[in-house]
């Protein structure tokens, strides 16, 4: 299985992503690191542990990272995730404690001892932790096979401003640091994730699958749709963060454009906007097209697999 570190800010769709990642036999989740984003760090860190515990995986180590973005003031997204961050899941305090190490130190520690191009990083929150790790220990880039990023927007326009997507807007300076390193990255932006929506028919197929994991995912998707209906009546929630795991397990469902992606960090109305410049040599792959039905079929496979 492919070694993976997941950096996230659960987040309803981060939680759905975690259900997929921990249910995919081809992925070996070595750590979950958390960051301030959809809700404050204390809650994203609790939520990651709670999801692992409910999935029967208290063995997955969870490390808390940065409590705020690098430079800008913090922004959160309770309107889309609920006050707890994972509206749809009953909240209890998880038994499994947070690991004592800071997420940034742990990312550096793990990457330092791994062979070249061997570890995949999945990032589904603001990129603060990854940026700090790459600033503190640039030599870890060697061990990174690829970074899979949920963030940014081009043709679709933004979801937090007319131009910016939440994860990049919440820490544009961190996103700029990560993208400017030139480390290979695949980017699932709103251009991709808006093609994959949790419609009632798709949720109904998941709901027909027995077991706790399917029930949990259905409850999360229904909760997300309830919040989405309040904010944007008539639309169904996009599968932002889950698309990263779908890319890892079924890249054939996606079309990509080799690009160089940059971030506007200049204050003003385009603050946090991503710019995509086609570039044969990369270093980025911008996802342009997703087979949404096939992606949902893969989610069904995961949920039907062994717990
Ligand atoms: C991204 O922002 C967050 O609210 C979601 O969890 C996702 O990572 C979508 O813009
Ligand atoms: Ca997220």
TrEMBL record:
Pfam family, one: IU_nuc_hydro
Alphabetical UniProt keywords: Glycosidase, Hydrolase
Annotated ranges, domain Inosine/uridine-preferring nucleoside hydrolase: 4-296
GO annotations of cellular component type: cytosol
Gene Ontology terms, MF aspect: purine nucleosidase activity
Record-linked InterPro entries: Inosine/uridine_hydrolase_dom, IUNH, Ribo_hydro-like
GO terms, biological process: purine nucleoside catabolic process
Name by which UniProt lists this protein: Inosine-uridine preferring nucleoside hydrolase family protein
Species of the source: Hyphomonas polymorpha PS728
């Amino acid at each position: 299985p492919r070694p993976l570190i997941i950096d996230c800010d659960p987040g309803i769709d981060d939680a759905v992503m975690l259900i997929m990642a921990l249910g995919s036999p081809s992925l070996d989740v070595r750590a979950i690191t958390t960051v301030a984003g959809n809700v404050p760090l204390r809650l994203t860190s609790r939520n990651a542990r709670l999801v692992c515990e409910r999935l029967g995986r208290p063995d997955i180590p969870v490390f808390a990272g940065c409590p705020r973005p690098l430079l800008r003031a913090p922004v959160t997204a309770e309107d889309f995730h609920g006050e707890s961050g994972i509206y749809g899941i009953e909240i209890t305090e998880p038994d499994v404690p947070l690991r004592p190490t800071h997420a940034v130190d742990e990312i550096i520690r793990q990457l330092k001892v791994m062979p070249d191009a061997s570890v995949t990083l999945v990032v589904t929150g603001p990129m603060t932790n990854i940026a700090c790790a790459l600033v503190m220990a640039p030599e870890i880039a060697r061990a990174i096979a690829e970074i899979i990023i949920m963030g940014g927007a081009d043709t679709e326009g933004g979801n937090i401003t007319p131009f910016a997507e939440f994860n990049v807007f919440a820490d544009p300076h961190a996103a700029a640091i990560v993208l400017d390193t030139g480390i290979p990255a695949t980017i699932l932006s709103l251009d991709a994730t808006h093609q994959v929506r949790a419609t009632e028919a798709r949720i109904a197929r998941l709901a027909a699958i027995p077991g706790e994991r399917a029930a949990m995912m259905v409850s999360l998707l229904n909760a997300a749709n309830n919040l989405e209906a309040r904010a944007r009546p008539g639309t169904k929630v996009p599968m932002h963060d889950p698309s990263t795991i779908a890319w890892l397990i079924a890249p054939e469902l996606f079309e990509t454009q080799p690009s160089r992606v940059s971030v506007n960090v200049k204050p003003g109305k385009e603050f946090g906007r991503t710019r995509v410049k086609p570039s044969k040599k990369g270093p980025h792959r911008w996802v342009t097209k997703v087979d949404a039905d096939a992606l949902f079929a893969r989610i069904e496979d995961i949920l039907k697999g062994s717990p």
